[in-house]
Amino acid sequence: MNLKLILGIVMPLVVIISLIVLSSSNAGFYIEKETEKSLSYNSVFTSQNQAGEVKIQTITLKNDYFLPKKIEMPKIIVCLYDAQGKIKSQNLYVRYNEGKTSEIPKSSVFGELQSISRAYDYGYYTATRIVDIPAHSKKELKLMVQPKNIYNNYDYNNKNSEAEFDEVLIIEPKEDKDNYYSYYNSYDSCANLHDKDIDSAIHIKIEIPFGNLQSEVDISKCYLLQDQAKDSCIYSIAQFNLNVKSSGVILKLCDIIIDKNSRNLCYINAAGKYGDVGICSNILNNYTANEITINNVASTVSQCYSAIATNSGNVSVCYKMPEQLPGTLFSSQTVESQKNTCIVNFAGSKGNVELCQSIADEGLRNSCYLQIASNFGNLNVCDNITANSNLKDTCIAWAGNKLRDKSVCSTVKDENLRKYCLGIT
Question: What three-state secondary structure class fits 89?
Fold first, then answer.
């Protein structure tokens, strides 16, 4: 009886436990990492909506063991970093790639993605992956990032932020288990990095195109490039020279950019820097009368005036938007909407609740309150949203997330918003 018990139950159990112990051993397992020494400015920043991914690190996993391995790769965030500390770091979308660069991501912070065309629509700021490695074999992973889209994304708080970043950081965030509101909880944001994380990060230098061109603007080498690359080269030179050259020099650079989206952003940055509303009219010159309506140019012009208003601290600039464009006439509703959008951007960046209250359109007015709640953690501003309980719930969640206040988050009714407020992805 005892022998049967030993042979039938104990021995198999011992074998199973032994295999579990052996499989969990790191014997014969090696990891090698090769990080890119530098990245070109034009590979990190793009004006195109469908830009390809950029490899920043190659990871080789080698298993010389007689059993297969299942390896959970560490969570990674990738940050754009300004070593001078002028502006806050920003996240780049990142993922582990096992195989071809066109591979569809198998998982993300927001769940499984359905197609490569939608892979970055949802966005994911952390890379995680579980890799199966057969016995006596190796696999290669690539850490890929999505370039920062600079068009139509003017940062009213940081101005021409892309020109300030000089490094890309690869960081393995460590959860502070003693702090419920660990600064990484909020979608693993790069905005609040600690010195210890910066020191332990892998630093990749962003190479300025063709060296320091601030002493003399020379774009001849840009013409060695083709199409988008040439436009990106000229645009980047314009941005790096905003602080040292006259508006005339910068506008000449903007004028020769072929892509209209990139050219418009170049004008917006220049207008914001020099405080000249006349520069905004250059945007209109990019289009025929019919194209002005089709391409929603009014919105782009509004961004230009918003840049000037926020940089100068003068909201009256928003009221100077033209009511008539060459060859066409905006409706009074369109003009009013774009002026209000300019005011929303200004008030949202300055935390000015009274300006929000002056906006007649309820949708834009509420959008203004939401910006202030998100940017400043102003919970009181949510009380101004009375007609839409769901929107008020969103406002509280955004403010609570900024404040990292658990008691505020507990009042959020919607479960998904409450998770966002708490920083649970």
Answer: coil
Same domain, residue pair 197 and 307: no
> Among the three residues 207, 237, 268, which one is the final residue of a domain in this structure?
207
> ∠ CA(323), CA(325), CA(329), 5° rounding?
65
Please report how many Cα atoms fall inside a 13 Å half-sphere around the Cα of residue 95, on the Cβ side.
Answer: 25
Residues 313 and 202 in one domain: no
Q: Whole-structure pTM over 0.70, yes or no?
A: no
pLDDT digit string, tens, across residues 60-109? 999 887 788 888 899 899 999 988 777 788 889 899 998 654 443 433 32
- What are the start-end ranges of the H helices in 226-361? 227-240, 247-255, 260-274, 281-284, 289-294, 297-312, 332-350, 353-357
Residue 419: Cβ within 10 Å count: 14
User: Which contiguous run of DSSP H or E holds residue 97?
Assistant: strand 94-98
33 and 111 in a common domain: yes
What's the CA gap between 268 and 277, in Å, rounded?
10
Whether 216 maps to a domain, the answer reads: no
Spatial separation of the C-alpha atoms in residues 115 and 129, rounded to whole Å: 18
